[in-house]
Amino acid sequence: MVALRPRHMRFRIALATALVLTLAACAGDGPQSGSQADPEAGAPAPPAAEGGPLALIGLWTVEDTDEKPGTVLRIAPKKQLSLWRDCGTLNGAWAGADNLFLATLHGGSGGCFANGEPPAQLTPGWLLRANGYKPDGAALALVDQAGAVVARLVAGGKPKVTDGVSPEEAEPPVVTDEDRAALSADTTLPAGLAAVDRNALVGRWVPVSGGATAFVAFQADGVWTGSDGCNGNGGRWAAGPQGTFLATGGPSTLMACDGAAVPTWLSTAAQAGLADGQLVLVDAAGTEVGRLRKS
């Protein structure tokens, strides 16, 4: 003979079973924490498979600027950058760290220049204001010093290759293990150096020793000008918390002199710290590249 449960017990069991099934169904409605949504459902994919400045490498369609639709920004390893417009290609350099991004254009095809001559300010305003980056759905947003968005970079795009430009330059950039190591380097300041506040960098600095006429002047708007004592140069700079430091530069004359390679120090530096009032620039490998004092 089968024992029968009281009616109130049978009702509780049925209610518990229904609750379990309902929770299971709700859990299947969306992706679990740490998983990606079903790509066939049209959910946005992350902007890049790599983190930090590696996420910047690629071909990007530029949106939310005054650029024409279809303009492509190509960010490649070894600080190579190019902007692809209908008129041709503009070339320059970039630098990036966690949440920081700088770019400067300094050359390109004559098709983008009036009468074949580049304008006095080649870098467009939106790119000149870019000081950092952050995820923006399936895209990346370039932001200024205040965090305001100056451009959206949508993954993908097909650069328009004009006459005189190699099609290989328009291909998606390839990241090697060497590139990955360089862009993933530890940016912790070496012992004995104190992180320098960005505002404290503003001003004119000269080498601690040698290069009597060499200098660098950091402006509050993120522009720097300087010289190795014979050859002038300039570009953009940024400093982040914990001593992160970035700088881009442009082409320069190649006059030989007994100065100090201050522009080279800036372009190779990844950190900046203070020691006894001196500004110490350190590369991505943790090696000191130069020392300056405020003048």
UniProtKB/TrEMBL annotation:
Has keyword Zinc?
no
Q: Identify the stretch annotated as signal peptide in this record.
A: 1-27
The record's annotation in InterPro entries points to: DUF306_Meta_HslJ, HslJ-like_sf
Q: Where is the DUF306 domain?
A: 207-291
Q: Which residues form a coiled coil?
A: none
Instruction: Please give the superkingdom of this protein's source.
Output: Bacteria
* PROSITE patterns, A to Z: PROKAR_LIPOPROTEIN
List the keywords (alphabetical). Signal
Q: What is this protein called?
A: DUF306 domain-containing protein
Organism encoding this protein: Virgisporangium ochraceum
